[in-house]
Amino acid sequence: MTQATKPLAIRLRNCAKTFADGTRALQPLDLDIGAGETVVFLGPSGCGKTTTLRIIAGLERPDAGGSVLFDGEDVTALPIEARHVGMVFQSYALFPNMSVAENIGYGLRIRRLTRSEIAARVGEMLAMMRIEALADRRVDQLSGGQRQRVALARALAVRPRALLLDEPLTALDAKLRDSLRLEIDGLLRRLGITAVYVTHDQAEAMALGDRIVVMDHGRVAQVGRPREIYQRPATRFVADFIGTMNRLSGRIEQGRFVTAAGALAWPEAPADAREALFRPEDVAIDDGANPPLRGTVAAAFFLGDRTRLFVDVGGERPLVIETEARRDFARGQAIGLRVDSRGLMAL
Amino acid sequence: MAERRLLFSLQLGFTLVVCAFLIVPVILSMLAGLTANYLSGVQSGLTLRWVGEVWSGYRETIFLSIGISLCCLAGTLVLGVPAAYVLAKRQSALSRAIEELLVMPVAVPGLATALALIVTYGAAGAFRTSWSFILVGHVLFTLPFMVRSVLAVLSAIDLKTLEEGAASLGAGFAQRFFHIVLPNCRSGILAGSLMVVTLSMGEFNMTWLLHTPLTKTLPVGLADAYASLRLEIGSAYTLVFFLMIVPLLLALQALTRPRPVKFVAEEEQP
User: Fold this and answer.
1) Do B170 and A155 touch (CB under 8 A)?
2) CB contact, 8 Å: B171 with chain A?
3) Which pLDDT belongs to residue B46?
4) Degrees to nearest 5, angle at CA A92 with A90 and A95
5) What is the pLDDT of residues A172-194, one digit of tens each?
6) Which of A213, A241, A269 is the last residue of a domain?
7) Domain of B119, in residue numbers
8) Which of B161, B167, B264 lies nearest to residue A141, judging by beta carbons?
9) How far is CA A174 from CA A18, A177, A203, B30, in A?
10) Residue A315: domain span
11) ipTM associated with this complex
């Protein structure tokens, strides 16, 4: 499909949002979104991610002093209908009084395109989303996945300067979510459009985002590429929110991190480290005579392709480790563990 | 099995008795309007004479009633639909209070409302004696029915998100209102219209106080005919009323019938 307009660079300057009842939904935020980039806002509900998206869209005004710039032009005062952005809503917001084709063509009708231009563009959109057969259906005759396709087609039909998606997959079941996620990813890459995507699902964020903005309590906790966010979380919140994180408390003694269950080699440790954080995949079972850590199996879950073990090492919480599926573990069984020192973090 | 059949027969019998209770007086009344002499019964023969007399004597009341009910509909549409829209968009203690207050004219006896109107506007001669005085009363009385039925539909749809969706596609306020809001509360508007037209057409309490000898509506004329003329003429009048209101009701009912919804299974393309 043709993306006529060139991708948009979005810049947020000092954007805060206080609602009428006095709650601060968003602390002052500065963010640059590059042309053609896909930025995902990720966080638990109430973290301010949707508010940020709505400020970009023009559905909310930032508090006085904040500004939104589109390609350097200040659009803070413009309502959404003048911003030329495409938006996909969690509830789809399809118009029940219109057919699928009329829904997709609505933005073109508003822009006073001719009947034949509208028909051509709607046809192109239907083909792109592979929903040609649904053109004359009413919206209430569509399944959730079909609705989401129509919503995407409708938002893209007007060739928006940027595409804004507010939890577009949350209302769908897991399997459909996976396949549509792939489809959206392909679409965004192909179109090269600037996209802002809001989700609370870290897998979605990892898969789609060029960059992820992790938010917590109205503040940005970390901005970075998915790999950075996962491997080098900036705060404890990010470390816990993204993926599974193990914690071991101890202290540094002669270049080693000494804990109740044993000592870990940790060459890059900060001298004052009181806690070591690491991901399940950086832990391996060590059947040697002198494993660095010793523990007992608290629980074992066979997941098909692997086994997830909870290992008690005398800490507050058991360690979570993932291991090959073939081996059987019994509760209470003593095992030895080693941790890849490259995966160790202090926060 | 026999017990079930007995139960069914009893239920059917009861239903038929209730129906007869409701319908027989109507049929008898309509029949009386077509009977040459009510006192000697149907044997005296059927005639259209009484209907003719109603037509010549009370034609004006029929047209006035139709006129007022249509103007009343226009008034409640213009006032009620935007009011319902605003009430649906701004959910606050104030909007809820306004919603409750709107029902007052229904709760207060029509006579009391009419008296209040007369006390307030009685001195405004031309207005007091015109049919628009009755119209104002009817609009007051029927407005809550329009607002309520539109509001019920608007509260059931996610109006805010639908409007935001339209705005994101470039639609301004007027376009959103006419393309999205109005079509999606169509069923509420039609149901409200049905109520407003029938209520206005049949309103008697208030109209009886508000009317002048020159601004008699159909129900007022009907009371007049029953009180001062032959029973046959009153009954013929009822017949005329039915002939007018039933087709109207059927037409409006057909319009308000919800469209059937077809459900489809989740069919996903690879």
Assistant:
1) no
2) yes
3) 77
4) 150
5) 888 888 888 888 998 898 889 99
6) A241
7) 44-255
8) B264
9) 34, 5, 11, 65
10) 246-343
11) 0.84
